[in-house]
Amino acid sequence: MNTENILKELNFKAIRSSGAGGQHVNKTSSKIELTFDLENSFAISEVEKELLKTKLSSKLTKENVLIVFCEETRSQHRNKDLAIKRFLTLIKTNLRRPKIRRPTKPSKASLKRKSESKQRNSVKKALRKKPKPD
Description:
The chain is α+β, with helices and mostly antiparallel strands. Helix content is 46%, strand content 13%. It is elongated, with a radius of gyration of 29 Å.
């Protein structure tokens, strides 16, 4: 994955931000919509594309376009930087492959320790009971 090439393929769109802000919010477009076409990207290999499609399936559109919004600040430039950071962390975290879990068997010594401790506990609890009348 080459981040420089990916950044060249990003598309940005400035939209009017929602919420409070008075007159300022009505006349400025500070919300940023970042779009990335995963299907037609040249910066990501086919294997990585398939991995991202499966992991990001809920965030992708039907055309396999990833959309990230950012409207945290009143500055369009800061929102753009935040959207890029969010996008890159999203891509990097979803490209990481999880470690393969190798199932292990408990050792004979650990099984023996476990059964001995269970036996000790059962004796301890049996001693707490009232003695049976003979």
